[in-house]
Design a protein that fits this description.
Shape: globular
Number of strands: 14
Radius of gyration: 20 Å
Length: about 350
Amino acid sequence: MQNSVRPAALVLAAALALTGCGAEVESPGDRKGGSRAAGSHYPVTVENCGERKTYDKAPQRVVTNDVGITEIMFALGLEDHMAGYVMPDDKGDLTGVPWKDGYEKTEWLSKETINKELVLDARADLVFAGWNYGFNEGEGFTPAELRRVGIDSYLLSESCRNGQGKARGVMAPLDALYTDLRNLGRIFDVEDRADRLIASFRQEVADVRAKAAKGADRPRVFLYDDGRDKPFTSGVYAGPHDIITKAGGDHIMKDLKDSWTTVGWETVIDRDPEVIVINNYGDTSSDQKRKFLKSYKPLADVSAVRNDRIVVLDYVDLVESPRNPAAISSLAAELRDLTS
């Protein structure tokens, strides 16, 4: 999937060249003609998953969990504010993006599950993770538990719980990405850099949408993460929803008010997807997932399986990350090729 990140690489390379990792960023008061003097950016307050948080200074020893979250920090040029990152080594190519230097400059703390002892050992002052992106009551690793030992947290907006049990999602997936970029821009006093990234992403997505199929011409698309008895997939609040719809597809689980969750095969069969997107990660390879889909008898008459219209995207393309706009470009090209 290395080619899928190249369109964003070209756009972001230009954007990052303009800002530079050491670029000075104006405070909101300076930009808008306010009364705050230079250097008095703080305190700043942001809203994160419904909670207002105030920062008197920029965190200096951030620990991130998972590849998409880590690359949000790298895309903002915040490696110097990081103690390190935690993630397994099965999350796709890490070299084809403009922020790849972040991996060389920042310590890979663990390939195992993030935990309290690890972040304490790293002397973290903030953990950037999310519900089911590191935070998990069952493991005893939560923002509340970290707060008890003096460590702050920032929740990935894609993972915000919406009040329906443990269902996640409170905004459209791309809005979640833009919200986190904007919030982190304020927290770390790099708002101009965040604004440039958001503007470049919005333009890339707009360019794709202008050429994408519309209305009845949009193919029905199902995201297959994994699962044999029941498939794990994306609802309306996970990254694949916006990636599919803005690439010109009709996401068949668009009525599912959750992010990443399980459904029944009977629902998939009834909605008859014309294209299936495989999430490439984990112990089960994309080839193994493809073989399962094509050999699973209940799916034999599903259009995507019958016509062999199966696409593969990497995990980092599909979870909230700065690679999402490039994934939209890549999937749009695949949909055009498959349905033309």
